[in-house]
Amino acid sequence: MKHKSSIQDKTAVPALDKVMAILGELETRGPSLAGELIAALGLPRSSAYTLLDAMKQHKLVAQDSQGRYRLWMRLLALGQAASASLDIRDVARRRLLRLMEETGLLCHFGIMDGPVAYYILKVESRGSISVRSYEGKTLSLTRSGVGKCLLAWQPEEERERLLPELDFTAATPASITSPEALRAELERIRRCGWALDDGEDVPSVRCVAAPVFGMDGAIMGAISVVGARMQMEDERLEGLARQVTACAAGISRDLGCTTPPATQPAGAAANSAPHQP
Q1: Residue 77 and residue 29 in one domain
Q2: How does pLDDT run across 122-157, given as a tens digit for each residue?
Q3: pLDDT single digits (tens) 237-264
Q4: For residue 244, what is the domain's CATH number?
Q5: 276 domain-assigned
Q6: Could you tell me the residue range of the domain that residue 100 belongs to?
Q7: Domain end point (choices 84, 101, 126)
Q8: Phi, psi (deg, nearest 5) at residue 174
């Protein structure tokens, strides 16, 4: 559900508060008559019409043939400019640094490019045990936590389109080796909200990953913590899942996502076993 606009939380610029309230109401309601906006927001009639006229001049809103106001092109231009100046790595870095400090594990941010994924951000741990990785490293969509997470939240049509392009060659005895097993694993990931690489690419390495969503609710990337099996023992996985999913949710909020796809709480994954070879 989108956040309903309000002018209760006022700043020192009352006119700006009212403009933002009108924009927020139009975002929620869609095209609306002036009277509907005035009633919903409790605005004085005279100042509301003055503001709406000024907003029309600045192309923040427009009126259709029935007199209804709608969001307009200046907002689109501003949004595109903001997106162009936004480096997702800068948005994610602060929270990943905190996640690394909390877990003591190597952290990554990855994105998907066709039938592969790759890391675009690495936050090295300060522990004595290191796992080799680097920014730009390509990842399997079937054997990595980040890759499986990215694939799990693609639209169904895209997932099915990609399946014939994926490499199901086993890297370890734990690797997923069939489309049927992968479909079941992706369903589990969507249900639980996080993905586990349980030594599926490198036998001694585990990874817990969670999805990051953008302003439109579509998946933009995935984050992960990675460590040796001795650092990520079975009894620690549920706690790590909560930490990673909380971090991913924070990054999603920073990117403007207000309606991520619904999943069970991270702890629910304990009742849904990860893929077994």
Answers
A1: yes
A2: 999 987 677 888 898 999 999 999 999 999 999 999
A3: 999 999 999 999 999 999 989 877 766 5
A4: 3.30.450.40
A5: no
A6: 88-271
A7: 84
A8: -90, -5
Distances (CA, A) of 100 to 164, 211, 228: 36, 17, 15
**Looking at the 3D structure of the chain, how many domains does it have?**
2
Distance CA 15, CA 66 (A): 26
| pLDDT digit string, tens, across residues 222-234 | 999 999 999 999 9
- Rounded Cα distance, 232 and 237, in Å: 6
Say yes or no: 213 and 267 in one domain. yes
Together in a domain, 147 and 71: no
117 vs 276 pLDDT, higher one = 117
Last residue of a domain, one of 84, 104, 123: 84
